[in-house]
Amino acid sequence: MQETFNQLGNLLLDAVPTILLFIVLVIAYRVLIYGPLSQVFEKRRALTVGAVENAHRAIERAEAKAAEYVERLRRARAEAYRAREQRLHQSNAECETALVAARKAAGVSVDEAKAELEAEAANARQAIQASAAELAVQVVRAVLPQPAGGSR
Q1: Cα 10 to the center of its chain, rounded Å
Q2: How far are the Cα atoms of 29, 95, 103 from residue 116, in angstroms, in the given order?
Q3: What tens digit of pLDDT does each residue of 53-111 get?
Q4: Cα(33)–Cα(26) distance, rounded to whole angstroms?
């Protein structure tokens, strides 16, 4: 068994340089590769998260601008509708004013025509009354025989 311990001791003694070399390699790996690689990964992660945050901010700004655009569009439509309604009311008022003026003018023309017609009718009545006596005389002469000696 002694021999086994001696062989085991020799084996461990022979392994010491390998173990030391392994430890030096692990330390060198940590210092030369793992540390800088970890820093690169952290920077990359920070940039990625930053880019995502920037994207979220850009999306929020775009949504705000879209909401502002929709609001401005709604206000512009409402203003256009109000202007159209105002023009319609103004146009209706102008038409109503023109219609009232036309009705007044037509009323005046009708009144003038009635007065003229009544004057013509009065003149015609006077002419008929004036000629009625003469017509009566002519009718009487035509109907009644005239005396032969015929005095008038």
Answers
A1: 95
A2: 126, 31, 19
A3: 999 999 999 999 999 999 999 999 999 999 999 999 999 999 999 999 999 999 999 99
A4: 10
